[in-house]
Request: fold
Amino acid sequence: MTAKLPLGRTVITPNALDQLHPADVPAALARHASGDWGEVDASDWTANDLSVKEGSRIVSAYRDAHGVKFWVITEADRSVTTVLLPEDY
Reply:
């Protein structure tokens, strides 16, 4: 997969680290960086595509091997990308 955006420093919340299947986190980060926004609706997908070009925040949603939903958020300045569960937000 070709990266469409820099992720900056990648971090994960303690809750996500405890609950997510470990192999699914790097896979989701690769998908996110390549522009595959996962389980977001069409309007969020379009907004993310625009955010890549305009430098706004990007939010993707995925599920791990056990069906646990999690988010990947890259900040507008591309300095950090966070992996977190919805309840961590």
About this structure: The first strand starts at residue 9 and ends at 12. Residues 9-88 form one domain. The beta strands are 9-12, 58-63, 69-74, 80-84. The chain has a mean pLDDT of 96.
